[in-house]
Structures are given as structure tokens and as C-alpha cells.
Design goal:
Strand order of the largest sheet: 9-11-10-13-14-15
Shape: globular
Number of helices: 14
Largest sheet: 6 strands, mixed
Number of strands: 15
Helix content: 40-55%
CATH topology of the largest domain: Rossmann fold
CATH class of the largest domain: Alpha Beta
Radius of gyration: 22 Å
Number of domains: 2
Structural class: alpha/beta
Order of helices and strands: EHEHEHEHHEHEHEEHHEEHEEHEHEHEH
Strand content: 15-25%
Length: 410
Amino acid sequence: MSQRQLLTGNAAAAWGARLADVDYIPAFPITPQTEIIELLAQWVANGLMPARFTTMDSEHSMLTAAGAAAATGARVFTATSSQGLLYGFEVLYTIAGWRVPLVLVNVSRALASPISLEADHNDILSARDSGFLQIHAETCQEVLDSILMAYRLAEDQNVMLPVLVNLDGFTLSFTREPVVVPTVAEVAEFLPAYQPRHAFLRGDQPMAQGTAVLGGSLYSYFRYQQHRAQQHALAVHDVVAEEFAARFGRRYDVVDPFQLDDADYVLVMSNAMATKGRAAVECWRSQGKKVGLLRLRLLRPFPTHAIATALTGRKAVAVIDQNLAPGLGGITYQEIVTALYHEKTRPPVVSIIGGLGGKDISDAEFEVALSDMEHAAAGEAVAGPRLLYTKAEQERMRTLLKIAGKEVAI
């Protein structure tokens, strides 16, 4: 019978791997994901998991081992964060190009320099074009559930691609929440034993993999097939979500609407910070303001149709990006605008940058986002992207910079 436990986001991720009955865990520690592999190592050592656990010498070798093991037909799990994801970055493209299914958890952390141990999403969004599917979780329960769903997605014969499951470092990785942990038997009914058809490192079924392609036409064909597999994943996700909801009573669609039925204004957010967005929406609702929230859950493949359906016809939309592409602005903002481009009744969309490096978004800053939407709905120009800072924070920054002997505009 399922048990309700108080788990951190990291522990929920470890439980997801344990319940998925993975065969192989190549690992390398990096804050803030180390707790995941510590738990898995402990369970393997104590005989609670019949998996092979191997500590590698870097994230690059870790991901190489993960891809190679998946190519033999093993069910593989591993985890990383921030600089670690970037250190193994070239291998992401290789694994996706091999079309081997595995699950990689990323615990988002800001990238240096300057150094911060807290969350933003530049690490995970840097990998958006690697060929990995991406699922972004808001709660500890969703972390565990998403890992189980990720294996179903990855191993589907119409997909056969690796999956990144993202959770926010510190904000969620070390936050304890009540989590329903299903039994091994319950999970086995949803996620049966892996029966690979693709394994190429086998003597009885030889296959060519990762070969050199002479001529762009063949390369283009394989890359396009990878794109089609991502598109297929949207339909497969709907089937997986339906079955997961029927078995466990929790529904996860490609996007997560909140108070959208009659909303004039919509915040678009992702990951754990969306919880604060929900609180802001509830506050506005209590004041009679028709505001809703759309949380992005599946970022690759990008659910263009679902997003356009949810946002078309609104008075205005504010995309709050917990990331920054210097010289351009918010990454998700660009993709939301693209999703709405061909819609006849597309709303004005404003760009907000908030939560970089784990920075909080205050109630006052949410009010700025609503104000920007109201101005945009009235046809007024709204400069963007707007970086959220309270006046007190701006004064503090000026003071710190003066102490450092630097006079710069904020």
C-alpha cells in the first residue's frame, strides 16, 4: 500500500529511480543534487536496490557511461546540476543522437560567474536543443511522479529519446513536503520491466550506431527523425498522463492551468517559483481581479498548441523567466511569443525576469507584473525585459557597488 512520507525534492528523485527498478546508476556529486546519489548509493549498498552503482571521475564520463549502458538495454538513471550539466554537455547530444532512453535529473542551479548555489534555469534551458525531452517539476510529489512518467515516455517505441527531469536547487531539492510513495507492485503495473528492442552492443543483434555520415542528406534525415520523435512524444505524453491519473489519482498535463477559466490576465511560469505565482493569483482573486497562471511543465517538446489554446483571447500575458539570455532577454518569453505568433486574437505579452540565482519574487514585484499587463492591455508600450527589483534592493545594490568602488547604473 502507498505510504505518505515527508521527503525533500532530492529524496523524491531518488525514490523515483528506486521505484523505476533501474539497472545502472553512474554518478558524480555536485551541489545541490548530491543527496540523490548518496541515498541511491546507500540503498544499493544495503541491498535495497538491485542496481549497479558506480562513482565516475566527472560528469562527462558519468554521462558517457549512462549513454553506453542505455545502449546495451539497461534502464539507466543519473543526476547532475549546473556546472556539472555543462561539463558533460557534448555527451547530451551524443546520447540523444543514439536514440537511447534514459532519465537524467537536473537540480537547477545558477551558473558561474558570479557564483550562486541557488536556482535559476539557465543550466537546464541551455540543453533545450540537445534532443532530450524536458519535464519541469513544481513539487516534490511531481518530481517522483515525473521520473516514473519519464521512463514510460523515453522507452516508448515512437519516442526512444532520453529525458531530463528538472527541479529547483535548494528551493525544492532540500524542501520537505508530504509525498505519496507508491509500492513497487503499483509502479510495476504502470512501468513494466524494460524490454529493449534497440540495444546495439549485443553479439546476437549487431547494429551500427554513432557511425560517421558522409553527406548532409543522411545527417539531415537522422536529425529530422529526432525532431519527429519529439513531436510524437506529445501524443505519447497524453496517453501516459491519462494512465498515470487512472492508477495514482494525480494528473499531469503538458501545461498546468490555474484559475484560467475566466482569466483576463495570465502569468506564465515554471518550476517551484510557480507556487508563489499561485499565491499571488489567489490574492488578486480575493480582490476581484481576474488573473490566472499557466505553468509550463513539458518544455521539450514545446507544447505550442496547448500554450496557444490557453493564452489566446486574454487581455495580456506576463512571462516570468527565471533565466536570462544576455543581449536578448528571457528565454521562455521568446518561445511563448512564437507559439502565439499565428493566432488572430493573440494577447500582448510582457517579459519579466525574476528569481535569478534563487532571488525571491516579492508580492510587490508580482504587482509590477500585473501593472505591466494592464498597461499592455490598454495599448501602452511596456519596455522589456523588466528585471524585478524592489526599491530597497536597488538601494542596497548601489551601496554595495559604491563600497566596491564601482558606479554603475541599476
